[in-house]
Amino acid sequence: MSQSATTTQNPRNPDRHQGLANGGTTFAGVLLAVTGLLSIFRGIMGIAKNDVFVATKDYVFRWDLTGWGWMHLILGLLVFLVGLALLKAAPAWARTAGVVLASLALIVNFLSLPWHPLWSLILVALYAFIIWALCTVKRGHT
Questions:
Q1: Which position has the higher pLDDT, 7 or 85?
Q2: Where would you find the membrane-spanning parts of this chain (predicted)?
């Protein structure tokens, strides 16, 4: 077997893992753009009509649903724009902004569990993947 054949078959090959991470960065950009759009729509729903969401009485974090709507709208717009910047191969600032915004969006979705439990859990998992993908970039590929 040649040297190149053995390195591509090795499951611990760093180049193979790095290819996954670089593809993950592109996928993270797509996910940021899509989840940003969905957050914008979620924010519009919260602002326009409070009775779209089901409120839980005994939840620790009590916010006005219109306030949640504005938070989702603004954060969704920022997440969408950073996702587009990542798809256009923006420099390191876009990855850094993506990690920061995905972290904030993860927290916001965790706090909105009472209103949309399943959707919030799905978004928490997606944002965790986005953070991983944006933090796992090969040096020199900024």
A1: 85
A2: 20-48, 68-87, 92-112, 118-137
Total-model pTM? 0.72
> In whole angstroms, what is the distance from residue 115 CA to residue 71 CA?
14
Position 140 in a domain: no
Quote the CA–CA distance of 89 and 117 in Å, as a whole number: 34
For 67, the domain range is: 17-135
As a three-state string, the secondary structure of 32-66 is HHHHHHHHHHHHHHHHHCHHHCCCCCCCCCCCCHH
Question: Is 105 inside a domain boundary?
Answer: yes
- 130 and 102 Cβ atoms separated by less than 8 Å: yes
Q: Minimal CA–CA distance to 28: which of 73, 70, 90?
A: 90
pLDDT tens-digit readout, 57-88: 665 455 667 788 888 899 999 999 999 998 88
Number of domains forming the structure of the chain: 1
Whole-Å CA distances, 123 to 40, 67, 91, 102, 117? 14, 19, 25, 10, 10
In a domain, 121, yes or no: yes
Q: DSSP string spanning 102-138?
A: HHHHHHHHHHTTTTSHHHHHHHHHHHHHHHHHHH---
Alpha-carbon span 42 to 105, nearest angstrom: 13
